[in-house]
Amino acid sequence: MNTSASFEGGSSPFEFFKFDVTTAISEKVSAPEYRPLDFPQPTQDADLLRQLSFIPGLKEILMLRQVHALEHATVWVLSESKSAYPATGEPTNLQLDNELLGGLSTEQGFYLYGEVNISDLRRAVTLARHRITSGEWDLAVHPRCGTNLSVAMLLTAGLAVGVHLLLPFRPIEQLIGLGLAATTAAELAPDLGSMAQRYLTTAIPFNLAIENISRTRDVWGHEAHFVKVGWQEE
Q: How far apart are CA 229 and CA 33, in angstroms?
């Protein structure tokens, strides 16, 4: 989940899946509608791994996608509160996004940044896995995911190059074209980013087993909780 780069100095192949820990207060956002093209099957990744086991790194990729979804679901669950319900007690279509929480996924588990009680985290991870594998697929998508930022950057760059080549090479036309490219990218990026999360960078964590949760430091030395997971077949 990401709106801007969180940590400076150093890079990681997992930064694509990283989202920010900001200092903003919690706010309500519309819950993304997660509707896969096909109903996800509990054994689909396990079957794929058995059929294509000769491909190097395939298991790590499949685990990373599932961990990414579990990370998002855990943040949603931790962010929930009674304020997400009106006085009538009926749930709404809003989910509470606590921007003080952030995460970073790896193929072995995910880091959770922000102040959270480890007991609450254990309950949240277990509940998140249960809910997302029971049909609440919308929990796999998060508006602050780094996927959205990556899609926005690629889309802006692509449109900018396109208008540069199509329009006359005069300053006024080029400036207008760049403005239109940036505006179009800003409008399309949220929806395209959500689609990229749904079908590319996340997968329902049917094959993940929660092994351990501990307080630790990430590769940059920042304090975080690490949720270690293992692969299991249903």
A: 26
